[in-house]
Predict the 3D structure of the following.
Amino acid sequence: MLRKGAKAAFQGAAVASRTFASGSPKAAPERLAGPPKRPDLFDLSLTDEQTMIRESVKQFTDDVVRPAAAKADEACAPPDGFLERFDELGVRLMAIPEAFGGMAGERSPLTNVLVLEELARGDMGLAFAAAAPLAVIHALVDGGTAAQQAKYLAAFAEEKPFAAAFALVEPRPLFDAHRLATKARRSGEGFVLSGEKAMVPWAKSAQLLLVAADLEGAGPRLFLVERGTNGVTLEPDPSMGLRSADLGRLHLDDVAVPRDALLGGDEPALDYATVIDRARMAWSALAVGCGQAVLDYVIPYCNERVAFGEPITNRQSVAFMIANIAIELDGLRLVLYRAASRAEHGQSFRREAALARAQAAEKGMEIGTNGVQLLGGHGFVKEHPVELWYRHLRAIGIAEGGLLV
């Protein structure tokens, strides 16, 4: 014990008496650089252009989308001039290549995700309506033939925008996007389409439809169908949520379309499974935006709501529920951004898109339910928007197609 005590005393004295000599300083301090960036890792920092686009869409959402949401839901249609107001942002032209009158220099799924997320923060139904024509444009850019692009992209680039829709969902239980009941058969120099589609936006005004059908001997394919074609009927069919997108049901009664209606021709450049993956990322982006709206609303409400002499956020059950919304929302956003980033860099993103879609369907519905629950009786009435967001988020579990990123 004496030996150990003496040793500790000498060590303490040595530490206390230690002095550091001043060296010769360099002109600048030395810093260690991080490891080199790897192309297989995604970067969450946005470019200056993405930041600018996001801020512009955010302003549009706050000024136009959010104030119009309730009335659009009651009317089951977007307000008059909505597509024109959205078009002022320039998102349509930024999706069309310069050769056809647009301004697009690159294809950025991550930027498209950011746009959808901000729009859905205002209203998911109006976001669906605003982005529906963009889905058809993206499909034409990614997989259209030269003739199809010259015919339709040039029309999309004209001064006045027009409504278009991607029709995929079918009104039957356990719908599988890879097993379609809508059929297409070859007939002479073209095709004949038969079947029925649901959840088609712009039921009253869509002029061009991108229809998914099972082509005999070739599996699921996409067809460009003009509204005025004989046998095409698109009638309003409002649902529980997404009512402001002017949802409708599409009937195809032996619709004859020419040979060049088949997107990409006989040897498509765009894989159908990739279309489904991109659509699933789009719906996940809508879930993130709407979930963010719920979180932004319940925090101040619960902080200001007083019960038993104190804010209800002082109760752990309330605080934990709000924290869980934030946790699940961040988790969904991260897996979605990773999927979009991989798609943007030409890497496989099927697994990440599937994870985002599954997370959006389960946790999105949970966020909507908890948003209503946190407001108690107020969550059940239309005075507060959480009941609308709840109805929107319920659609994530059944929605397919309609959008592309």
About this structure: The chain has a mean pLDDT of 90.
